Amino acid sequence: MNILSKIVGIVGLILLIVLLIFPVLGAVGSWIALPIGIFGLILGAFSRKSSGRTLNIVLIIIALVRLWLGGGVV
Fold first, then answer.
1. Residues near 45 by Cβ (< 8 Å), separated by ≥ 6?
2. CA 54 – CA 50 distance, rounded (Å)
3. Phi, psi at residue 50, to the nearest 5°?
4. Which of 33, 39, 45, 55 sits CB 3.0–4.6 Å from 16 for a disulfide?
């Protein structure tokens, strides 16, 4: 489960980083990356190792900060 969690987290981070370059799509990308990170965190919760969970927590924090700074989360 940890490998699946890492894969989901890496896909979410790549999506988030690519869409951070484009300001118009940044908020949409953050809203898309947030559920991906939550799904990866759920997958990582079933694992004994914590690397997948940590990666997805970082993804969730970056997406929330991006939404907060852009006004997407009130």
1. 53
2. 6
3. -110, 5
4. 33
Residues spanned by the domain of 15: 2-70
Looking at the structure of the chain, the number of domains it has is: 1
According to the 3-state scheme, what is the secondary structure of 29-55? HHHHHHHHHHHHHHHHHCCCCCHHHHH
Burial 18-33 (b: 16+ CB within 10 A, else e): ebeeeeeebbebbebb
For residue range 47-66, what is the model confidence (pLDDT) as tens digits?
Answer: 889 899 999 999 999 989 88
- The pLDDT assigned to 74 comes to 52
- Decide: 3 and 46 in contact? Cβ < 8 Å: no
